[in-house]
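=== Structure Prediction Worksheet ===
Name of assembly: unnamed complex
Input type: mixed (protein and possibly other molecules)
Chain count: two
Listed entries:
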Amino acid sequence: MQHVESSAIEWDPAPEEFFTGEVWFGPLAPPVTDEALNTLGVMFSPGARTAWHRHVDGQVLYVAHGSGIVANEDGERVQVTAGDAVIIPPGEVHWHGAAADSHMMHLSLTTGGPTEWMGRKVSDDEYMG
Amino acid sequence: MQHVESSAIEWDPAPEEFFTGEVWFGPLAPPVTDEALNTLGVMFSPGARTAWHRHVDGQVLYVAHGSGIVANEDGERVQVTAGDAVIIPPGEVHWHGAAADSHMMHLSLTTGGPTEWMGRKVSDDEYMG
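=== Predicted Assembly ===
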């Protein structure tokens, strides 16, 4: 077994192409095959968010710290806080990010391969809702 | 999408057959098929622990609160605390539980179907290491 101590996780900047604002990736348990479970910590500064995207097998988010927003193309929008989870079904186009006045760290739990990015960022109007 | 608020999670006693001490299950994102991702919160009282078990696809633990112990049949044993993860390979026989002086809540992240229980609990000697 492998012990991944919190203090030993390496946080690297998330790719600017797919995020707005300051976002960091901290891999906890990278997938052992392309389709296997990927457990990724994601740290968002206030106001930072993903671009629009989807996941073949869907996604489970677990909010470890702070508060944020998760929204989808159908107009659903929820405020989340530490201890909450969000279940996003396969193929649902969505985004997530920190609240305007809070950092957020969530775990991104996926299987089935890499994120499918839709080629557009979340505008300020979309973010403000 | 489905928002699973921390305050809405229903915590039920874990099956006594497979645990020692007081342990509670709080399902965050139950698997949509037998083999899909299962995101389960597990709350251990001080000294409480699983029985010996293994997982077909292995397991990722994420310690959300408190401190605990993860150990395997090969004699590896680690102390874990909030923010840590542990990656347990497919088929590795192991147990996990709270420290003697702390609660622990961890997420259990598995795919590939139900836990395989080995039919024996973790003795006090094994627990004390």
